[in-house]
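Justification of computing resources. Each target in the renewal requires a structure prediction run like the one illustrated here; the chain below, 75 residues long, is used simply to show the kind of job we budget for.
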Amino acid sequence: MPEQRPLDALNNAKDKRVIVTLKNGKELSGILRAFDIHINCVLDDTEEYENGELKRKIGKIFIRGDTIVMISPQQ
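Resulting structure tokens:
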């Protein structure tokens, strides 16, 4: 099996729900629709969580890659 690169892992998560942690401490959960080599991302059906509780529903959102700390597929 060939090695996976970081962008391959993101590509496998495309059209699936992911959790994105930002540098400012916010957590966003949404469906990963698109990304580029800078890890700029477009999420759909996005929700913002604070301390594990839903704070607000955002909908479609663009996130700059330089504000992202972590992206994780949601189980």
